[in-house]
Amino acid sequence: MTLIKVNQNDVDQTIFNFIKKNYKSTNLSIIYKWFRKGKIKINDIRVKDLKIKIKLNDEVKVFDSSQTEKRDQFIEVDFSNLSIIYEDENILIVDKEPNLEVHSPVNINLDQIVKSYLKNKKEYNPEEENSFVISHVHRIDKLTKGLVIYAKNKITLDILLKELNNKSKITKLYLAKTENSNLQTGKISGYIKYDNDNQKAKFRVEKFNNAKKVEQINRLIDETKNIYEIQIITGRKHQIRAVCNFYKAPICKDFRYGGERSSLREIDLIAYKLIFNDFEGYLSYLNGNEYKSNYNF
Questions:
Q1: CA–CA separation, 205 vs 63, rounded Å?
Q2: Among the options 64, 95, 111, 141, which is catalytic?
Q3: CATH number of the domain located at residue range(s) 2-62 in this protein
Q4: In the annotation, is 64 catalytic?
Q5: Fewer beta carbons below 10 Å: N end or C end of the chain?
């Protein structure tokens, strides 16, 4: 039998999601079987309704004799090079270096670095958390550098994930240095499809098979260096890179999308500014705040 006590970062979720997060390596069919066989209890009452919401200080018992592995193992890594742009009790905004993945099941990644930093500060203890894991709110490409937001608690994570696609709440601005000034300025609308086999996205103005709608606003801010400020309205994978490629204005060093090959493991694309607007309640103190990357051209 395993006893799990519900803490503040666990509340307001279903018992099914709570168990699923605690037993990530367990096949879902086994978890469903636990519920059917009455092997899940909340405060010593058997639970078969998967939609019951758990509350603070609830005691959840899992009667599983197979000793299923609970949660993923946390691996501490060096965080001495972590560049912090802003931090408070709810969020952390960091400047990701190029050639570093935000998340990876194999390589050292930004998620591990941030978790190690917060564990060292005693603001995160994976051994005391049940279902919550310090998490990035959004990602940027491995070869892109710049700002990434992390949520330090479940309340903040839920709010930010809910508002992530509401671009009036969080404005994301990028700087792109292109090989020429052919990139169309103003609002760009079209469709994009990412090919997992080729690891490349295709952008077209007209709709095509299974493509998703994308929009962004391009503004040329330095004509001599061909530097554009790009506001993301939709955030599809490789969106900016594919749009630049379509207009035959590839991002410098971005060989995959038509740029000159470089020995450097980076492209000239920076997630350089975040602006918070119109949040209500818990995160309203962030309204009007702007955060800029230390990277520039």
A1: 56
A2: 141
A3: 3.10.290.10
A4: no
A5: N
